[in-house]
Design brief:
alpha+beta, Jelly Rolls, seven-stranded mixed sheet, two-stranded antiparallel sheet, 4 helices, globular
Length: 165
């Protein structure tokens, strides 16, 4: 698994110095199962993911639901083993941290995080491409483009609405 460093975007404060990226089927399936202890600075970033459970785990964790641009959508502190964290709409990443880490770092809903690799660059092509696309959209003040079947449906609906007026 790729090792990352997770920072608060506004302050540069370190959230997790040794965060592992689980973006493959088996790494996401295993997650933190079998882990008996998480030290401060450890974490697991699961991608893609919008809900988690702690079935079969031995430790309590803090769960942070993130959007695709690394904005904190929801925080759940002190999730005990055997629990299910509800689905969060809009979530595409989940960051699992040792219990109490969210409070120590002062994370709150709406904060932005940054994932860095060992060299200090933004982590991997996957995140860089996604964040660059989002930054460009925000800079140009563009709405996301619809594609595929949904786009065809919208065009069809516009034409029919105009005809009926």
């Amino acid at each position: 698994m790729q090792e990352l460093k997770i920072l608060k975007a506004e302050t540069g404060e370190e959230i997790a110095s040794r965060c592992y990226l689980a973006n493959r089927f088996f790494s996401r399936l295993k997650g933190l199962l079998g882990k008996e202890y998480m030290s401060d600075g450890e974490g697991l970033l699961i991608s893609p993911c919008s809900s988690v459970h702690t079935m079969g785990m031995k430790i309590c964790i803090d769960v942070v639901f993130l959007s695709s641009d690394f904005q904190v959508l929801r925080l759940i502190e002190g999730v005990r083993p055997g629990k299910v964290c509800q689905f969060k709409r809009g979530s595409s990443l989940v960051l699992e941290l040792p219990a109490g880490q969210v409070r120590r770092c002062g994370l709150k809903r709406g904060d932005f995080l940054i994932a860095m690799d060992k060299q200090g660059d933004e982590a991997g092509d996957f995140f860089s491409r996604r964040r660059a696309r989002i930054r460009k959209r925000k800079y140009l003040n563009e709405e996301p483009a619809y594609d595929g079947v949904f786009s065809g449906f919208i065009n069809f609906a516009k034409i029919n609405i105009c005809r009926n007026l």
